[in-house]
Amino acid sequence: MRLVLSALLACCAALPCAAQEAPSSGGLHGQIAAGPGIAPDYDGSDDVRAIPLVFGDLRVGDITVELRGLRGRVDLMADPRLSAGPVIGPRLDRGDVDGPVGLLPEIDMAVEAGIFAGYRFGGNALGQGAVQLEVTALHDVSQVHDGLLVTGTASYAALRTGDTFVSLDAQTTWASADYTRTYFGVLPADAVRSGLAAYDPSAGFRDVGAGLSVGHYFSRHWGVIGRVGANYLVGDPADSPITEDGRRWQPLGGIALSYRF
Question: Residue 229's closest CA among 202, 198, 254, 194?
């Protein structure tokens, strides 16, 4: 289950698409991609693991179903510049970890749900030159961490043709105290067992990140999409003994074979 849920981890907050015309019938169209990727073992880890990478956009009429990182979401807006709708997705558990962090209590998989809203500025008919701004708010509905996360994302379509795209993005996430204490805190009793210092983090910004996505379709249907990026932990999460045992830099990346229809 962890491996399957990790399949979406290396994706960016917004998946750029090579331009293509929608079917005149308004039927299902879009793209789906899969391939190998890498991601951190857990928040603050200095180890990475190989993961399968899967993402895509599936559109029917004015509704778009999107895979975004670990999340699935539905864009309900007919306006091509405005996007908004519900979001839901899992957050991976922390278990089977080596070292002092492995002596801390394991964290079950959480399920987070919320909403997103975004707006696209500028850009030509294919979207080149457009700037997309988005805000996503998620709350734990599974009572694993009971926290709230709010992420702001900005992306820029540096190149967009019928078969090729290059997109740059940056993001930052604010996290509530319930979230930071679950994933970056160390209770006094756990400190004795693990050897890590006791730590009680507060609410604040969790990280800042940036990435680059590149794709090219070498035929009408088949192409390749690559993604490289990293998040840098800041604030109380960066000062956590869990992060000090690992590292602040959290790399993400992968390459995938894509099919559009």
Answer: 254
pLDDT at residue 12, as a whole number:
41
DSSP category for residue 106: P
Whether this model's pTM surpasses 0.70:
yes
CATH number of the domain at 243, please.
Answer: 2.40.160
Count: domains in the chain? 1
185 touches 201 (CB < 8 A): yes
E strand intervals along the chain: 29-40, 48-60, 63-68, 71-75, 82-91, 110-121, 131-140, 148-160, 164-175, 204-217, 222-233, 249-260
Give the C-alpha separation, 119 to 192, whole Å.
49
Question: Structural domain of residue 95, as residue ranges?
Answer: 2-260
Phi, psi dihedrals of residue 237, rounded to the nearest 5° = -60, -35
The first and second tokens of residue 175, run together, are 């996290």
pLDDT in tens, 84-119: 999 999 888 898 898 999 999 999 999 999 999 999
Backbone angles phi, psi at 243, to 5 degrees: -70, -40
Contacting residues for 218 by C-beta, under 8 A, at least 6 apart: 163, 224
